[in-house]
Amino acid sequence: MSKKVLVIAGGISSEKDISLQSGKAALEAVKRLGYQASFYQLTDNILDFVQYLKDNKPDVIVNMLHGRFGEDGNIQGLLNLMQIPYTHSGCLASALSMDKHTAKKLFKEAGIPVATDKMVTLYDIRQNNTLPYPYVIKPNNEGSSVGVFIIESEADKDMLLKNWPFNGGTVMMEEYVRGREMSVAVLNDQALGIVEIVPASGFFDFHNKYTTGGARHLIPAPIDKAQEELLKEYAVKAHRALGCKGMSRTDFRFDDTNKSLPPRIVALELNSQPGMTALSLVPDIAKNIGISYDQLIQSLIEEATCEK
Could you tell me which CATH class the domain 4-87 is placed in? Predict the structure, then answer.
């Protein structure tokens, strides 16, 4: 009898809608692959979810949750307790990948170049306790470029302060590295390839990521072989530094604006549960080397584990 595979999606993060898109696409793949497929839309009612798992006893969970509470170790911890194998990374790796500041420390220790950053509060910015312009302000634990602002001038800073979108606490301030946006997919410790993302306008924000025509994907990325191999090496190192398993995607800046110097490469963050929608990067990268969407999903299912 084929495995009972449950796809979970939704959740309560700012990436709920994207998660549902990923989940529905994954569900169709699970069906095509011949598994016993079912779908659960997660809400904040965890007791109902636990009861559903007890009643239906899935063999594997395909975790298509994105953002906080879904890819930050919380659900992973619950599934570990219930001893239900699930796709993607475990509890600690998931938590580390969602904490950008901590992840970058581990990247640096692994020999991966990173952009300068610091954790700041609203008070710090008001007191000019900042990095030199230009810099980026972003939440430390969100994905999909949610809440990312590029601050290039005093006017930009004043506008951000007038419309402060963050609910207290600290945010990450990071030097803005000019140049090109690159992303590298890793599956089971192997780099699949590199995409250059060219936004239709501005930068690769939430709108451009998930709007048809919002960005072009250049695959393979138009860079030389040595640079390609270096980016792949860094992505695999990042995957291993955080202890990831299954699939991940690491985002980089590739600054070749000064033609008299070698390109500067910096790792920005690792996504331990990359989007799997029709517009997502990892399926596009995999397709370029002959790996179909269904094959990606099958690999995740067959490699699914839980921590004992």
Answer: alpha beta
Higher per-residue pLDDT: 10 or 166: 10
Kindly report the CATH number that applies to the domain delimited by 117-175.
3.30.1490
- Has 123 been annotated as catalytic? no
The catalytically annotated residue of 68, 142, 275, 293 is 275
**Rounded-to-5 percentages of helix, strand, coil across the chain:** 35, 25, 40
- Global pTM reads 0.89
Q: Which of 271, 272, 280, 293 is catalytic?
A: 271
Annotate 73-109 with b (16+ C-beta within 10 A) or e (fewer). bbbbbbbbeeebbbbbbbbebbbbbbbbeebbebbee
Q: Using pLDDT thresholds of 50, 70 and 90, give the confidence band for residue 145.
A: low
* 275 catalytic residue (yes or no): yes
CATH 3.30.470.20 residue ranges in the chain? 97-114+178-297
- pLDDT at residue 1, rounded to an integer: 64
- Domain 97-114+178-297 -> CATH class: alpha beta
- The 10s digit of each residue's pLDDT in 173-219 is 999 999 999 999 999 999 999 999 998 755 544 444 445 556 789 99
| Whether 144 is catalytic | yes
Exactly one of 72, 99, 228, 251 is catalytic; name it.
251
